[in-house]
Amino acid sequence: MKKVIVITGASSGIGEATAKRLAKAGNPVVLAARREQRLQAIVADIEAIGGQAAYLVTDVTQREEVQALADLAVEKFGRIDVWMNNAGLMPQSTFDQLKVAEWDRMVDVNIKGVLYGIAAALPVMRKQQSGQFINVSSVAGHVVHAGSGVYAGTKFAVRAISDGLRQEEAAAGSHIRVTVISPGAVATELTETITDAAAKKRIDALYDAVAIAPERIAEAVDYAIAAPEDTSVNEILIRPTKQVG
Ligand SMILES: NC(=O)c1ccc[n+]([C@@H]2O[C@H](COP(=O)([O-])OP(=O)(O)OC[C@H]3O[C@@H](n4cnc5c(N)ncnc54)[C@H](OP(=O)(O)O)[C@@H]3O)[C@@H](O)[C@H]2O)c1
Prior knowledge:
Helix 3 (63-77) packs parallel to helix 4 (100-128). The chain is built from seven helices and seven strands, in the order E-H-E-H-E-H-E-H-E-H-E-H-H-E. The protein has helices spanning 13-24, 36-48, 63-77, 100-128, 149-172, 197-210, 214-226, and strands spanning 5-8, 29-33, 53-57, 82-85, 131-136, 176-183, 235-238. NADP nicotinamide-adenine-dinucleotide phosphate is lined by residues 8-15, 33-35, 38, 58-61, 86-90, 109, 136, 138, 183, 185-186, 188-190, 214. This is Putative oxidoreductase.
């Protein structure tokens, strides 16, 4: 069955690869991010292969913009079957550098953006008595390293929020599924958000050595969505084979 799928952070990387894979399989997709030209180009690519796609320029830190995204999906395609909270950034640095504006930004996008996505889509899914959240955490949602404290904190939070939601929806019998995807190093634009030169050098070296393509994560999302409705794939931790930590 075709599903209406909303993806935040769809203008590059994992979001873009997932949107293209799922749209190619015939699912209508609704794409959100801030860079409009990127979104337009991805929609054009999808339409060129006969897929259905819409986009809305959305900053996930603005609750009303996230609500407008959900409204667009319902208006255009009639429902929301899958909501993928994927938008995120990873400006890693040590605490002593006091990059407090970056801490704020990570909390706002990586945590509050996910919460606003839940607030926008949950009422629609409750009404439908079906739906699925795909929340993107990270290996950093499972392990912490020096320099990754705040980023890891936001990604641990995504897992906590997701399991709380999962338990509530299971108890309510709403048929709403919750999936957390935790990637390791994936070759995307994510490291461009790192402003600390030493951290960027270290992380770029790791990514150059081991990172896998974002299409690998798209395959995992596809698997979680395709599982039978009575089965909820709750967690997928997916590292490059060569990644140690
Ligand atoms: N790459 C990895 O190694 C890796 C590993 C583990 C987890 N992850 C997670 O995977 C997710 C996707 O990242 P990626 O690796 O694909 O990196 P990416 O290529 O940098 O993609 C990040 C996406 O988030 C969007 N975004 C950032 N701030 C936003 C905001 N305020 N509102 C709306 N969209 C916003 C960006 O679009 P605009 O700039 O156009 O808004 C972009 O589409 C993130 O949550 C990241 O933490 C990535």
